[in-house]
């Protein structure tokens, strides 16, 4: 989604907020040249609190309805506006998942649409840092008594070595040139963190929540990584003599326990979605499967154990020695690698239940917990793979949480072609109108990976071999590590050099090629066009080097031409390659039988030696710009 499109979407939501709260004291009283900007900043702050804090009544969250002093435009005890720059600040405290108090200072700065694709001016961030510095010193003047009291509490919190988070909220892109200023501020104030929430971060989180139905990381909360802390776990002992557990010692220590839903509720309340970081799936906010689990927990709690497979979790060395009578023990970190839906559904059912119903759940519901000691990354991944095998999982799903997959997807959100890293992760029904209006297309990473291997890495013959392997073995070598199969290609495709825009340029080039041959992307794996795609990059690089500059980027130029709607040069490149191949393919009778001259993308070029020879000849040939421009 282009930034301007997302900006327009948010701007409409801000307009709705302004209409909804039109009787708000501040909105009715603010006047002046920049009053519209101030109203939008106010609305953006409300939107931010509703989106992340999920608080419908923002006034209950940030204020106790103090009167509005005219001399400084202060709306409420925790909320203040600056008439000079149309920004607003709130100050409030919240407890993290471990019960520690954290103070938050949020500054909201609205900007108009023509700045949506620009970086936040460095001066704005520096000014915000100066404002934060003033707050840290307690030098704020001319505020109403209730805000003053909150600032005094903040100042005392700082003196007690409390943690503070300053959040700067803007509808522009982050400016990396300010990293040094931010680092300097944080170095000066060691218990203070600066978080810049820009348009891209908002867009990523919006997609996660609205389209994927997954809760994004909340900047107004702090969850501790359960892999890095000690975890208190309580298990159920129904039979003191036998202990109700199974212990496995070789090759990896493992236990099977029974636990109650209240324990799972407390774990999720403390650590949130970080519990599932190693899982191939994140639990959906809403799904029929989740609702069935919740319904069973509420209506038939005694039947829950019989209907549910339980959960599988990994902990880390040193693995505890657990006596068979023990009901509580401490784990060295925890990750739930199977059963995320079960945990999340039970959390919701328990969270929304009355005290009486919670007691009933805890007395009747049992959940099986398989607790394994980590055997290292490869072992843990295989456990995840096989414990999820009863469901339709693809090879690519096991890498969905790989940081490089996350990064590629986030890069794709700046375009109209979104990178799908896990099948079905975009729950598009509720947001279909938004996607259609903005021309968003969901492209599986399997297709992007295939195109990247042929186009950017110049290995079409390797790709075709991988396709043939997949047809025979139902395994996708593009998403299998070389550690698990000698021909696995995952690390060759996905590494530090991989970026989404190279993939996108290849996708665009492939789209032009398929159109020329009256085919679609659904036909791509069987089309034998990938060798032509690879040669296109070679010829296109030579062409733009002569026509534009020796440093011209293939990726940049293909994206530019495709998105402006003029793909004439790309089409002519393919015509040139077709002519080049007709001149270069061998003419011996046996080889001629293997070559269909009316369809040059044939089995002949699946031979790596032959492809490499022709590619070398193309790279070493002398090409004039007119050789391509004059084609028709």
Explain how this protein is built.
The structure is a single chain. This protein is of the alpha/beta class. It is 46% helix and 12% strand. The chain has three domains: 3-211, 3-Layer(aba) Sandwich (Restriction Endonuclease), CATH 3.40.91; 230-393, no CATH class; 396-629, no CATH class. It has helices spanning 3-20, 25-29, 35-53, 58-62, 122-137, 145-159, 179-188, 199-211, 261-271, 288-299, 304-307, 340-351, 355-364, 377-387, 403-412, 432-437, 445-455, 460-473, 490-493, 500-516, 530-547, 554-563, 568-584, 589-593, 608-620, 625-629; strands at 79-82, 87-95, 101-109, 163-170, 192-197, 230-234, 246-248, 254-259, 311-315, 328-332, 335-338, 367-373, 417-420, 441-444. The longest helix has 19 residues, at 35-53. It is globular, with a radius of gyration of 29 Å. Residues 60-77, 79-86 and 588-601 have low confidence and may be disordered.
Summarize the structure.
This protein folds into three domains: 3-211, Restriction Endonuclease, CATH 3.40.91; 230-393, no CATH class; 396-629, no CATH class. α9 (261-271) packs across α12 (340-351) and α17 (445-455) packs across α20 (500-516).
């Amino acid at each position: 989604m282009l930034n301007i499109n997302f900006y327009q979407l948010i701007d409409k939501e801000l307009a709705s907020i302004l209409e909804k709260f039109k009787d708000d004291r501040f909105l009715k009283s603010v006047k002046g040249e920049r009053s519209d900007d101030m109203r939008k900043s106010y609305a953006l702050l409300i939107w931010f609190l509703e989106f992340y804090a999920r608080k419908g009544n923002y006034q209950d969250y940030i204020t106790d309805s103090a009167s509005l002093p005219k001399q400084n435009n202060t709306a409420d005890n925790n909320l203040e506006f600056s008439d000079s720059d149309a920004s607003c600040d709130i100050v409030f405290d919240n407890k993290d998942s471990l019960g520690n108090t954290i103070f938050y200072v949020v500054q909201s700065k609205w900007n108009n649409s023509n700045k949506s694709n620009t970086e936040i001016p460095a001066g704005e961030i520096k000014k915000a840092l100066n404002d934060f510095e003033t707050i840290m010193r307690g030098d704020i003047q001319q505020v109403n008594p209730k805000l003053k009291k909150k600032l005094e509490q903040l100042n005392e919190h700082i003196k007690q070595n409390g943690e503070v988070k300053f959040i700067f909220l803007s509808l522009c892109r982050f400016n990396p040139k300010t990293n040094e200023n931010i680092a300097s501020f944080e170095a000066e104030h060691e218990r203070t963190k600066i978080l810049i929430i820009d348009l891209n971060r908002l867009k990523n989180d919006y997609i996660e929540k609205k389209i994927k139905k997954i809760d994004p990381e909340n900047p107004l909360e702090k969850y501790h990584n359960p892999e890095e802390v000690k975890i208190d776990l309580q298990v159920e002992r129904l039979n003191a003599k036998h202990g109700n557990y199974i212990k496995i010692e070789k090759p990896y220590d493992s236990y099977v326990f029974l636990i109650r839903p209240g324990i799972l509720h407390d774990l999720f309340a403390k650590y949130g979605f970080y519990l599932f970081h190693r899982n191939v799936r994140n639990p959906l906010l809403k799904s029929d499967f989740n609702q069935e689990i919740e319904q069973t927990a509420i209506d038939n709690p005694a039947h829950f154990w019989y209907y549910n497979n339980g959960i599988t979790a990994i902990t880390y060395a040193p693995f505890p020695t657990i006596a068979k009578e023990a009901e509580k023990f401490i784990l060295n970190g925890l990750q739930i690698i199977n059963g995320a839906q079960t945990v999340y559904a039970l959390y919701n059912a328990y969270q929304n239940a009355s005290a009486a119903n919670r007691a009933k759940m805890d007395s009747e519901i049992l959940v099986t917990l398989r607790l394994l000691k980590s055997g290292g990354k490869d072992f843990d991944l295989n456990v995840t793979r096989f414990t999820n095998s009863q469901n339709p999982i693809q090879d690519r799903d096991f890498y969905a949480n790989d940081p490089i997959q996350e990064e590629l997807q986030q890069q794709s959100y700046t375009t109209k072609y979104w990178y799908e890293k896990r099948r079905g992760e975009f729950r598009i029904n509720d947001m279909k109108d938004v996607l259609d209006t903005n021309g968003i297309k969901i492209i599986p990473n399997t297709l992007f990976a295939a195109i990247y291997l042929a186009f950017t890495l110049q290995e079409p013959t390797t790709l075709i071999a991988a396709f043939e392997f997949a047809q025979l073995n139902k395994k996708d070598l593009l998403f299998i590590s070389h550690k698990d199969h000698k021909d696995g290609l995952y690390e060759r495709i996905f590494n530090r050099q991989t970026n989404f825009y190279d993939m996108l340029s290849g996708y665009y080039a492939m789209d032009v090629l398929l159109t020329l041959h009256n085919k679609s992307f659904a036909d791509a794996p069987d089309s034998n066009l990938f060798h032509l795609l690879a040669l296109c990059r070679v010829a296109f690089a030579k062409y733009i080097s002569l026509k534009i500059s020796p440093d011209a980027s293939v990726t940049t130029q293909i994206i530019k031409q495709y998105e402006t709607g003029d793909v004439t040069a790309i089409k002519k490149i393919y015509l040139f390659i077709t002519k080049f191949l007709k001149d270069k393919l061998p003419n011996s009778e046996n080889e001629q039988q293997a070559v269909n001259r009316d369809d040059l993308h044939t089995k002949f070029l699946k031979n790596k030696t032959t492809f490499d020879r022709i590619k070398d000849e193309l790279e070493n040939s002398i090409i004039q710009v007119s050789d391509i421009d004059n084609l028709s």
